[in-house]
Amino acid sequence: MAERSAVLFLLDDTYRTGSDTPLMLHRVLGVPLLSWLSYGLTQAGVGRFFLACAPALLPQAKTCFPAGVALTTSSDESPADLLHVFLSTAEETERDLLVVTGAVIYAPTMRRTGAGRASACMVDRLALMDALDETAPIGHFLRRAGEPTTGEDGFFDLTAPEEIPGLASLLIGDQLARLMRSGVEIWDVRNSYVTPGVTVGSGTVLLPGTVLEGQTKVGRGCILGPHTRIIDSELGDGCVVEQSRVEGARLAGNLRVGPFANLRAGTVLEPGAKAGAFVELKNTNVGAGAQIPHLSYLGDAAVGSGANIGCGTVTANFDRVEKHFTVIEEDAFLGCNSTLVAPVNVGKGSYVAAGSVITEDVPPQALAISRAREQIKKEWALKNKRAD
Length: 388
What we know:
Elements: E1 4-9, H1 14-17, E2 27-28, E3 31-32, H2 33-43, E4 46-52, H3 58-62, E5 70-74, H4 80-88, E6 96-100, E7 104-106, E8 117-124, H5 125-133, H6 138-145, E9 147-150, E10 155-157, H7 164-181, E11 185-186, E12 193-194, E13 199-200, E14 205-206, E15 211-213, E16 217-218, E17 223-224, E18 229-231, E19 234-235, E20 240-241, E21 245-247, E22 250-251, E23 256-257, E24 262-263, E25 268-269, E26 274-277, E27 280-286, E28 291-294, E29 297-303, E30 308-309, E31 314-316, E32 326-328, E33 333-334, E34 339-341, E35 344-346, E36 351-352, E37 357-358, E38 367-368, H8 380-383
Parallel strand pairs: 1-4, 1-6, 4-5, 11-14, 12-15, 13-16, 14-17, 15-18, 16-19, 17-20, 18-21, 19-22, 20-23, 21-24, 22-25, 23-26, 24-27, 25-27, 26-28, 27-29, 29-32, 30-33, 31-34, 32-35, 33-36, 34-37, 36-38
Antiparallel strand pairs: 2-3, 6-8, 7-10, 8-9
């Protein structure tokens, strides 16, 4: 099917609203309304956009469109010539064209019967080209020949910033409705949030308090939440992420994260790995089946497959000048409260005794012990008993 086209005029309406920001650049869930509109139209089949706006608005406005769409921009006061070229390069079979001339949101699953007209209309592409050839004012042509859209079509006008919270519920509801129609299970639509650009596979469950943002991609059959925030991350099939924060990370399939884990930028978890309760990872690759069950911090590290990281393990990766790397090879076993002072390497199948501070490489299959020898002073408590 041929991609459809849309023409968007981004108006600088700050003089009217009193706000410092044009209405279409105000944010819902941290995302500009122009992004909500462009992503929504893309899902409806629009693959070509013409954007006209003031030069000062163009840099921010250009970032509001999905990657991969064809975007033509104009910041001239009279964009007619460039618009004519845009229209002429559309598919010959494309006749109906969407033109947005004001602050508008698009929520097609939230249609409202009897809702008023929106600042968007459908026009005949060839007729608009003829009007441009005749140098007729675009506004006059649209008022005369355009077919208005309304809330029954899923288009809703925005006239002031204080209207945004009410319209935000339409946008969020529309986003969640699309997901549910594709097989995603959402326990509480009033307490789940998904921004444009996020994809979620069929069979995935979103528990209350789940927030998915940015370019996050979630596979099939995952369980996310409750109270989980995932930003610009990729999750494979069958991931379970409970009460945790994940940002800039890549999680392969069939693994568990949380509760209360914090996975930061550059973190990679291979299949079957675990980052459990109160675990923080940064720029760390965790191999298949490796376990970090609880209360550990690993930064700038590589953990081999099958390794076990005991409770309270820490990589001391920063010397106040540079960050240093730690390597924990496959099947290594680190006892509780181990501190690895980077750069350091813990060899394959080796053991680190609980409470050790490791400053030198540990050979494969070795046992490393680095702690003071225990001393027992018999009857010390009796001789030093406090007088009450």
